[in-house]
Amino acid sequence: MATTPNSRDMGIVSICFGFSLGFCVLTGSKATRQTLGVYRRTHSLCNLYIWMVWTELIVNLAMSILSWLFIRGDIPGSFAFFFILVSLWVLQTQCLIQIIANRVGLIMVNKRKVRTMKWTLFVIISLINISVFCIWIPARMEVSQTFVRVNNVWDRIEKVLYLIVDGGLNGLFLYLVRSKLISGGLTKYKPLFNFNAFIVCVSLSMDILIICMMSLPDTFIYVQFHPLAYIVKLNIELSMADLISKVVRRQDRVDNSYSNSNPTELTSNPRHGHFNTRGGVFSSSNEQPTHVSHVYAGKTLSDSSEGDISPQNRGAGIMKTIDTVVQSVEKDGSESVSSSMRQLNECRGV
What we know:
The strands form two sheets. Strands 1-4-5-6 form a four-stranded antiparallel sheet. A two-stranded antiparallel sheet has the order 2-3. The chain has helices at 7-42, 48-72, 79-107, 111-140, 145-181, 190-213, 221-249, and strands spanning 265-268, 274-276, 281-283, 290-297, 318-331, 334-343. Residues 253-319 and 328-350 have low confidence and may be disordered. It is of the alpha+beta class. Helix 1 (7-42) packs parallel to helix 7 (221-249) and helix 3 (79-107) packs parallel to helix 7 (221-249).
């Protein structure tokens, strides 16, 4: 069980609790603004992203309050308390990882890979969650010293695993933005790249903070830093969502040779040739397959059909991404061109 915290530890906990409440208010205002934006555009709140955001916010607030009361001695340690705390932590970790994966999926051009990535992350995080149920709770209940020793090692390992997953997802996002958007001439995405490159350091520092707090004499105090770290991460994701939406809706584009009259269409990785936006055909003398990605900003995917982005649909957020695969073959002096367009992602609703 946790030792009685001294005045120094209580000071640290009090500061952490205060920051957690402050970030909850700040993050809640952003979540409310994005939720209202989704409702105004769709007249519905059936949006998985919005539900995950609010679940993450409420769970962090509840976990912060419960941990604070336990450290103060207002709540006694029991199996029920530790089980509830771990259950909140499970929702906390699962929702945040899926929110980050959802952001990465907006840039990926293969819907099947996006689903595979999300399910893989869900399974990996679930296995870690199950291990914590089996190790952390018995260690806190001091069932045996073996559980305590194993928990002292495994607790740090699973924190490092989350750090690796978080860093890997953000690294993948940076790679996709640079390789699929910026390298194709869309320099308007450089601010998004630069901001994410900076903010990922802040996000990862939250994981490092938790690991460092595990070295305090009171072995429970680090739990109080979990809500603070994850509410900061959630605030970062909401800020990233706002920035992505603003960048996509910007009308200035670099590559005008492959665009139509719609100012919200973005083309990445273009090759030499001509793209007919009405017929969905790209003509090219290049014998190698060509990939052209289009990111549309508008209301929601249901507001327009694929390939039909009308002016009234130019509103907010990433509406869909279309990948065009071009194969040009010279045969009998004539050129045959095949083009396939695949819808990728629905709007996150921001």
